[in-house]
Every structure is written in structure tokens, then in C-alpha cells.
Amino acid sequence: MEVLPKNETIALREKHIGKSCQLFYRKDPLKILVGKGQYLYDDKDEAYLDCINNVAHVGHCHPDVVKAGCEQMATLSTNNRFLHDNIVLCAKRLVDTMPEELSVCYFVNSGSEANDLALRLSQIHTGNKDVITLEHAYHGHLTSLIDISHYKFNLPGGVGQKEHVHLASSPDYYRGKFRDSEYRREDLGHMYAQEVKEICNGIEEKGRGVCAYIAESMLSCGGQIILPQGYLQEVYAHVRKAGGVCIADEVQVGFGRVGKHWWSFQMQDVVPDIVTVGKPMGNGHPVAAVITTRAIAESFEKTGVEYFNTYGGNPVSCAIANAVFDVIEKENLRENALVVGEYLLECSQILAKKFEFIGDVRGVGLFTGIEIVKDRSTREPSKEIASYVSCRMKEEHILISTDGPDGNVLKMKPPMVFSKQNVDEVMYALNGIFKEVKETFEFAIAPRPRSDSCSKEARKTMGPSLKEAIIKSI
Ligand code: PMP
């Protein structure tokens, strides 16, 4: 429901909300009033196709999730010092999707809280403090996590790299330290893992000890990077040999987004010591969790310090998380992520054949990145083109974001109810906007008046198979 006209909302926000909280599309921000499935509706009741909201995992305001939350809210919401079935059932559902070693859960309210607790557990279990993290990684907004989030601490106004923090290269085959243009793809996992081994050795040589290695199981803020084959297996072996534990941050990429598995780390055939989950878990409601081994949980217990979190695992949050699990299963959303994700990747690859400035296309399930470059041979990034495309897509009422160290990766991680027809809509619009880029930029970066070929209106009349249409036009 709209309470204030948009200009008043903007004025109040200017006055009372900290300027560090930034809006999407700052020049012309969206005022979204309603969400349904994969669509968002603004103050003029205009629909936007949402390709960025991995949090609204089973679709914005899914009726089953809303009902579960409302019913539980009308019945009881209290802390987890009382027995309640919702929390134990939610814990069981989580561990049932994980390797059996991961059998103990702690419930928290956000991905940041989950990662902070993961660090605390690691410190207690290993007695060490040094953390290995990846370049360009983001693990949350708490002070402990800004310290291990290169994405934040490395900014000009950031806190810088602390002594206990060690950076490993982002295992990016396209623009990382070791590239598939120079080495065989199948060797890259080993090469990047060797670097982690050297970091572990360096920590030991300094007379310190490894506490943890933390990484997302697919790198989202890092630019939609899919880890090279065999990478985590080798990394985990090195880290464990050095006495550290391995944390898989599944806050963005978990809950079946990859389709074939529930969790992205399963693609690498490893068992982490700690897994952190959040965002999609509550479909928009704040609920998150840490899942770990009995041994780590026992080290924590032995400290004798109680873990209490007022809202963590409350009956409402757990009712919601359980409903999210139900919907994923009932609506076969993992299967949908697989099928629609493959189609999205195929169509994006077709576009890449057509447009020189698409350097790379990659993805698994409903997690896709299109990397924009100025020059395919040098792989020099083009943030300008990527930002132009993302802004133009908004004008076409499709929301996609940009990310990666150079802001040149078009990022898509839509709600899991995304359909093939939605992919067609996205591709139709991208095709039109890419044509504009081709005609306009000639890499001089001065946008010309836009064409109508990708407009919302034109999309209504597009043919049934966009893929064929694009192939014909190549
Ligand atoms: N880990 C990852 C990988 C994330 O993307 C985020 C949020 N963007 C977090 C942790 C922190 O989660 P939250 O914002 O819920 O605290």
C-alpha cells in the first residue's frame, strides 16, 4: 500500500535514512509496492521482471509461505528456550539435505550473523585466528565479516587488510591470475588450490595457525564465478592439513539454485565443516542458519558459554523456512532451475556469438553471468557497457544487476519460478540493447538514441522461440 507520494518518500529518505544505504538506479529509483512470483510492481502498477532477487526464492510473496508465516504469527512467536516443533523440524529438513557429517544447526537472523557465528565456531574449534578468504568476496556486514570481505575492506575508504586475514586469488578462469587462455581449464583448479597451500604454509611459517578457509560455493559478488573442477577438494585438504576448518558460504547460492543439488558445494564433491545459509531460506523473511559437525558443536559446548539469540529459530521464522522447503519440493523448483537455467545459458551463448563485446558466458542452474569486455583478445572489462545495458534493461522493465571486481558482469539470479518465457523476454530485450551498443558505442562510450527493437511493446509480439530467431539473425 502506498502511504506517501513518491517525491515525499524520496524527501523523507534523504532526511532520515543514512546515505550509506544506497538505492538501486539512484538517478531514478524504483518505488516497488507489490511483489508476485517473478514480478515486482511499482507505484504506477507497472510490472518489472525480476532477475536479481535470489531472496524471493520461491517467488515474491508465495501464498503458502505467507500463510505459514501469518498463521504462526497469530499463534505464537517466542524464543527458542521453549520447546517447539518448528525449529526441530526445520533443523531436520536442513540436515537431511546435507552430507550426514553436517548434523547440528544453529538458527540466526541473517547471512551475516551466520558467517559471524561460523567464524566464532572455527576459532573455538581450532584455537587459531587466521582466515583465508578470496579476492572480491563478500561475507556480510558485521565488523568481523567486513574484515574478511575484500569486496568491502579494499575500497578506498575501507578498513584495509588486517593481519589475520589472508587473500587467495579468485579462481576465475576468464580474468583471474590463471586463465584458460594460457592454461588448460582442467588444470586451473589445482593451480588456484596450490596458492591456498602456499598461504597455509606462510601462516605456519609465521608461527601462527590456520583458523578457517571461507568461500562461497559459486562466487556471486566476485562476478558469477563457477569454481574450477577439483578446486575445493584440494583446498579443503590443504586447509585441514594445516589445522583449519572449511566454511562454505551458501547464503546466496544455496537452496537448490544450481538445480542438480541442494547446495552448490555439492558440485565440487566436498563436505565442508561448516555451512552457512540465509537469504532464500525465508523468501524475504529474516531467517538464516549455521550447520556444522558434531565435533565442532562439541568444542563450542565445552566452552560452557550459552549461545542465545533472541529471534534465531523463533516459531514464525521456522514455519516460513519449512514452507519454503515445501514449495521447492511441491513445485519441483530445483528441476525448473535446471531446465530454465540451461535454456538461459544456451540463449546467452547464442548472443555471445553475435556480439563481440560479450567476452564470456557462464552459469549453473539459475545463476548466470555475462561478462562484458572492450576487447575479446585482451579481455579488458567494460563497466560502461555493462552499466548502460543494466540501466536500459530497467527502462524495458527488466531488472538485472552488474557485479564482479570491475563491475562488468551482467548478473542474473532470479526467483526459482523463472520460466523459459521469461528467458525469452530477457534475451529479446538484451538482443535489442546489445544491438544499440554495437551501433553506438563502437567503444567510444557515447550512447545514441535508443532503438525500439527491444521495447516492452515489441516483446509482446515476439515469436514463440527466441532462440531460433536469434540464430537466424546471426
Ligand atoms: N554471504 C554472502 C555470500 C552474501 O551475499 C551476503 C549478503 N549479500 C551475506 C553473506 C550477508 O547476508 P545478510 O545480508 O543477510 O546479512
Automatic annotation (TrEMBL):
Q: Does the keyword DNA-binding apply?
A: no
Q: Which UniProt keywords apply?
A: Pyridoxal phosphate
Residues spanning the signal sequence: none
Q: Does the keyword Coiled coil apply?
A: no
Q: Which CDD domains match?
A: OAT_like (cd00610)
What InterPro entries is this protein classified in? Aminotrans_3, Aminotrans_3_PPA_site, PyrdxlP-dep_Trfase, PyrdxlP-dep_Trfase_major, PyrdxlP-dep_Trfase_small
What would be one Pfam family of this protein?
Aminotran_3
Source organism's superkingdom? Eukaryota
> Would you identify the family this protein belongs to, as annotated?
Belongs to the class-III pyridoxal-phosphate-dependent aminotransferase family.
The molecule here is called Alanine--glyoxylate aminotransferase 2-like
Annotated organism of origin = Nicrophorus vespilloides
Q: What's the gene?
A: LOC108566258
